[in-house]
Amino acid sequence: MSIPATTPQVIALLVLDQDFSRLAVKYCPVGKRLYPTVNDQKRFEKLLLKKLPRARGSPTEIEVCMLESQLVVYKCSGEVFVCVVCSFNENELIMGELLEGIYGALCSVCQEGNMSLSSTIAAASATNQSLTKQGILEALDQVLLVLDEVVEDGIVLETDEKTILKRLRMVDPVGGEGGGIGGGGPNGAAGSAEETNAQVFQAATQAAKNRLLSSILGSGR
């Protein structure tokens, strides 16, 4: 199926640190054609980090730069850079919205700790949220799921932080907790549906984690 010319296309989503390390990345089909090997990807990431300003303690506003004819929309916080790479003719506003949604969702999954789902979602969009390398690594499975959830085959699926968090936990964006597969019907059916949701979520988490980790480590396809 051909993709309409007006559909926003993402080349790659990158979470990097200022020591030239990739923490979590996702290269979409266009990105894999441009940078087919892990070495090609790491070369691009290293050039990008050299071009970006040194990270500061507090989160920056969204900024834009060009590298190898690609548009890079990025935000830095502490030692972490979160970047959306796309074609130079893409809409910067849409890519900025995507970046804000990703950044906010990453902050939430890295900071949630023992917070409940409802508390995490309610706390979303809090001001002055920061990311750290340690936080990213400790929540790597959730970080990888965030990247996997917002873009599919280069097409932007979601940009709203709270909706990303709900999709991440297989919670219906309209109906609240208990949505998703199984529906959470009345009485005994609810418990069965919750068990089914947990099993499906666990399988989806592992599959996404394996797929994206293989991309990062270069052992995948």
List key phrases describing it.
221 residues, alpha+beta, Beta-Lactamase, five-stranded antiparallel beta sheet, two-stranded antiparallel ribbon, globular
Quick overview of this protein structure:
Helices cover 46% and strands 18% of the residues. It is α+β, with helices and mostly antiparallel strands and 221 residues long. It has one domain (10-174): Beta-Lactamase, CATH 3.30.450.
Topology summary:
Blueprint: E1 10-17, E2 21-27, H1 29-34, H2 38-51, E3 63-67, E4 70-77, E5 80-87, H3 92-111, H4 117-123, H5 133-138, H6 140-150, E6 151-152, E7 155-156, H7 161-168, H8 188-217
Antiparallel strand pairs: 1-2, 1-5, 3-4, 4-5, 6-7
Order of the strands making up the biggest sheet: 2-1-5-4-3
CATH architectural type: 2-Layer Sandwich
Based on the structure, what is the oligomeric state of the protein chains?
Answer: single chain
User: Kindly state the mean pLDDT as a whole number?
Assistant: 76
